[in-house]
Design a protein that fits this description.
four-stranded antiparallel beta sheet, 11 strands, 202 residues, alpha+beta, 6 helices, Glutamine Phosphoribosylpyrophosphate, subunit 1, domain 1
Length: 202
């Protein structure tokens, strides 16, 4: 899972060190786009959920499928109250050898798939993932593919930043990388002459 670290108000970039990837319990990893304060509220809900689950002390813990189902109910409930949490969420994880990856929108629309994205990623990154993702992808190749997607988004999304984090989740642990900057190249001819192709058909 990958996310940039930009925090913006509309098209005004205010922060460049916002962590959007958070572990949830022992088996899950949450990624988010959208309103930062609403994301913090969701994390508070999840902290309470995980604490309540741990209090049973029954040697069982919530898996990614259960956490994702909980998030779909939270988002749909807030939407029905006309007070939505302004986020799109991705929930991934591994439990008892079963991999899970799903997303939920701010109005509770949700699905599972082999690859998911939020925001502009649905339009720009998922076509790349559809072409290049396969089930036997190594971790190193997966990182390269995610970096390619994030670079494409950086070039085309004015609110994106080139500072990113990439997370890996296994049966044993969740690892989130230290923030690092993507290598970029702005010398492409299309970037130099922005008016080319803008004439339209009028």
């Amino acid at each position: 899972m990958a996310a940039d670290m930009g925090g913006s108000y509309g098209y005004t970039l205010g922060y460049k060190s916002v962590e959007r990837l958070k572990p949830v319990g022992k088996h899950s990893l949450l990624g988010a786009s959208g309103e930062i304060s609403d994301f913090q509220e969701i994390l508070r809900y999840l902290d309470e959920l995980i604490l309540y689950d741990n209090m049973w002390d029954d040697l069982n813990s919530l898996g990614p499928k259960e956490v994702h189902s909980y998030l779909t109910r939270v988002m749909y409930n807030r939407r029905n109250k006309f007070n939505p949490l302004w986020n799109s969420l991705i929930l991934g994880g591994v439990k008892i050898g079963q991999k899970y990856l799903g997303m939920v929108s701010m109005i509770g629309v949700n699905f599972e798939d082999n690859h998911v994205a939020t925001g502009f990623g649905n339009h720009l990154a998922r076509p790349i993932l559809c072409d290049e993702w396969h089930d036997n992808l190594s971790f190193e190749d997966g990182v390269k593919l995610l970096e390619k997607c994030m670079r494409v988004l950086l070039y085309r999304d004015t609110t994106a930043v080139n500072k990113v984090q990439i997370a890996k989740i296994t049966e044993e642990s969740v690892t989130i990388s230290q923030p690092y900057s993507l290598k970029t190249f702005w010398g492409y001819s299309a970037f130099q002459n922005l008016k080319v192709g803008d004439e339209g058909s009028w």
